[in-house]
Amino acid sequence: MRSKLVGAATLSVFAVAAHAQSSVTLYGLIDTGIVYTNNQGGHNAWQEQSSMLSNEVWGLKGSEDLGGNLHAIFRLENGFNIQNGRQTYSGTMFGRQAYVGLQSDQYGTLTLGRQYDAVVDNLGAIALANNGDGNNLAAHPFDNDNIDDSFYINNSVKYASPTYNGLQAEAQYGFSNAAGGFSNNRAYSFGVTYGNGPINLAAAYLQLNSGGLTAGGALTDNDFVSFPAARQRVMGVGGNYTFGPAIVGLLWTHTLFDNTQPGANSTIAQSFNTLHFDNYEVNVHYSLTPAISLAGAYTFTQGAFNTGTGSVDPKWHQVTMMADYSFSKRTDVYLEGVYQHAYGAAGTAFEGAYINGLSQASTGNQVAATVGIRTRF
């Protein structure tokens, strides 16, 4: 009897140990509030909206210890709208992220599936539009550089190195999955970050070779691609510096589109032979107390496009200011205001101001203010 008890106790210890070596976590975020806009198509608007700051998600992530400092990992993440219960990406259960892979403490992480690109991973942490839980209203015009993760890369293989003396690199390739069309609707990106004390630096590059957003390619019509193009390239550098309760960031991105054609989710329903954007952002975060924080950003965007009948150089000034109060680690309330001034493109589709997440204004000026609540689980 005693030996049976010892054996049972031993088995229970092994069972607990095995359970402790693997984990599955359910997580999510809900963000909703009231938004006022002075000009959407020539009319002011009071609206109850979701995800004005942070994307609403729920997901599952897990890790299993395989021994030898090697782990199997996965993430399945769904985007939704709490106002109507609909999925953000129609027809998909896990439209935000869906991947599986291996993580090694010594050799890095290899994952396969639907994933963020290197611009989001490396430069997103510096921009106000995607710092921490994100800030969708603060995105650069039309999210032209995908800093605000408007789209994801399907069929992608991503490798992220371990951190060596503060330096980390990543590379990604998204397959077209097209027989006889290897380069049709593929994507690739790479980036690098460096952190040393209060200094963080980053650089990234992304290229999309669309040739038509096919259902099985790296991008699809289900993704929010502002300007579907035969080729899109994004490059950028940035950094931030922490001193005391303040963090100051600087960011530059350059986006080039070749031969754009309006698609299902196009922001501007117009074709362009070439379309370029340069975004210059300065931002600051300041913690007044452990519960109260302030943030702000100024972005200047200089554009250029050619339609075959002439060239135009539109420009945008955008200012964002935000105050946040945390009730707890999970729940906070916020107040934010955004002002955008667009000019230099009279008589074209870019004539009206266009704050991200709202409808285009009938003039070159648009103001938005929102008060909302976020909770995480």
From TrEMBL:
Residues 1-20 form the signal peptide. It is found in: Cell outer membrane. Residues 8-340 form the Porin domain. CDD domains: gram_neg_porins. Pfam families: Porin_4 (PF13609). One of its GO terms (cellular component) is cell outer membrane. One of its GO terms (biological process) is monoatomic ion transmembrane transport. InterPro entries: Gram-neg_bact_OMP, Gram_neg_porin_domain, Porin_dom_sf, Porin_Gram-ve. Keywords: Cell outer membrane, Ion transport, Membrane, Porin, Signal, Transmembrane, Transmembrane beta strand, Transport. It comes from the Bacteria. The keyword Signal applies. One of its GO terms (molecular function) is porin activity. It is a multi-pass membrane protein. Homotrimer. This is Outer membrane protein (Porin). It comes from Paraburkholderia megapolitana.
